[in-house]
Amino acid sequence: xxxxxxxxxxxxxxxxxxxxxxxxxxxxxxxxxxxxxxxxxxxxxxxxxxxxxxxxxxxxxxxxxxxxxxxxxxxxxxxxxxxxxxxxxxxxxxxxxxxxxxxxxxxxxxxxxxxxxxxxxxxxxxxxxxxxxxxxxxxxxxxxxxxxxxxxxxxxxxxxxxxxxxxxxxxxxxxxxxxxxxxxxxxxxxxxxxxxxxxxxxxxxxxxxxxxxxxxxxxxxxxxxxxxxxxxxxxxxxxxxxxxxxxxxxxxxxxxxxxxxxxxxxxxxxxxxxxxxxxxxxxxxxxxxxxxxxxxxxxxxxxxxxxxxxxxxxxxxxxxxxxxxxxxxxxxxxxxxxxxxxxxxxxxxxx
Amino acid sequence: xxxxxxxxxxxxxxxxxxxxxxxxxxxxxxxxxxxxxxxxxxxxxxxxxxxxxxxxxxxxxxxxxxxxxxxxxxxxxxxxxxxxxxxxxxxxxxxxxxxxxxxxxxxxxxxxxxxxxxxxxxxxxxxxxxxxxxxxxxxxxxxxxxxxxxxxxxxxxxxxxxxxxxxxxxxxxxxxxxxxxxxxxxxxxxxxxxxxxxxxxxxxxxxxxxxxxxxxxxxxxxxxxxxxxxxxxxxxxxxxxxxxxxxxxxxxxxxxxxxxxxxxxxxxxxxxxxxxxxxxxxxxxxxxxxxxxxxxxxxxxxxxxxxxxxxxxxxxxxxxxxxxxxxxxxxxxxxxxxxxxxxxxxxxxxx
Lengths: 351, 351
Description:
Two copies of one chain form a homodimer.
Chain A: H1 3-16, H2 20-25, H3 54-67, E1 81-84, H4 98-110, H5 123-128, H6 131-136, H7 138-150, H8 155-168, H9 184-195, E2 199-207, H10 208-219, E3 226-238, E4 241-252, H11 258-266, E5 273-276, H12 282-289, E6 296-301, H13 322-330, E7 333-336, H14 337-340
Parallel strand pairs in A: 1-2, 1-5, 2-3, 5-6, 6-7
Antiparallel strand pairs in A: 3-4
Helix pairs in contact in A: 1-7, 4-7, 8-10, 11-12
């Protein structure tokens, strides 16, 4: 397959993540979530939702080293760049990527203006919630789905659509808002790093304009610190009013080898800390830790079927194999949700 | 011409800016520069190198409005985004774009490894300093020049090359370092906006990786707040060491209609203040001022042949025609260097 073809396929896989096997096998339950102890019993207010253990210790030790003025690991604040994957690292990606749920809902919303979709795949399958047929529509079908739901409108229109959707759309299993399906330990980690002079970036395989509208409110990450996949855009003046038209053409795929490229394009310097959960983040962690000086790479391992979901090597969403195999020799931390996280999801509703 | 062809041509024009007429006509003198009065006689420490006048008043009034809590024009700090063109807005672009001087010097540095260049255009012309022939080599020749000097190496190598070059290369007329050919009033403006809660971005038609290595030191703008034109890059692991290889292929042209696209891609929200000097900045100013609420757009008008250079409508570097024609009706401020700037260049060496 050509590089271009492979990248298009990747994009489709990222946005949709449609796997019949994965859909069935990877559904964890949120019902056993432990209440957060944040600010209550814990004598230590730092990372209260992290259990004592190797992962938490590695984070604290890293931050201590890079912030200790005069110490051998000191990193001046402007170079304290931390990058976070989004799906599966900051919020749940099971049982399907949130952006796929958005695309399906968007097809339903647009259907009245597209009567032809009732008899045309992959739209018919999306309308009927037939994920298996949707997946079977292949690259061409899924590309059509993505472009019909993510392009053909202006950036401002798309932002408003995402904002409206994310304000009410709910997780199919837990019934909670998707913005409540974020990981409490990771929210604490984002805040802890920022309190120690870090600039935190999201480096998502998902759409950059899909994450930006709510990333500041939910994660404290402003739009200019969100990196993601994108479609091309064109500047147009329509009746005297300038707009950015989103075109049905892929601009950039921010996954796997694309993540270090996206990081360099947006940030222009190498991060010193990287957080991911799948092999789509492998190169980002590799790039981060290949730099000189003190570095931290951490993989969130989804091994808690009771509180969230258990998946790694066999999963088609967030597959994690190479990362598990090589973490030890590379000095990367593997955080076990079951073992390292006192709580998984916030017990209070984020803003 | 195809859109792609037009964009390639633009890139070449941006990077090289080779105009025989422009080169001859647009050479101003720096010798009459007025000494800076910064921090000395002026009773007002704000923007000391700006003369009292409409431009300075417009800036102060804008900042006052957007920072006045509870006022009708208040803008919360996260939305205080200001964008600055670089060439001709923050530093001198005469008698040639600095990046062209870099490309020519780079050809000379690489020539020993390329004996074939002695008899092959446009390299022969570059080696001989024959700018007229260089310009005559056309799009294909200039593309070859840019790619030979800006691609084929890693991002880290390119950064080091730029850093080494910018540390010693000097302006052909004044003999000063290029980083001393920055505009003192604009340095003050950058600092003034930041002191008022703004995030300042550079939005350059030039190469993003050409500006980043020195933008923080000279302008106080970190790499992640620099936007520019770029070549494509590829992530590769070479003997176990990951690199980002710069490819001889254009990725993005950040000029004219490209500037709002680049701004959206990098920043993800519309600026409230924009500063430029040429029609290459027109769309950036248009996009900025088309948003709701309080906005500021300012054009630096190069009308001071004694202290810098006088050029606008007829110039091939930094041509300014539409901006001058439409500024008044659009409410954009035109700052005259002759009238509005007490001093042009810093009298002390920047860091």
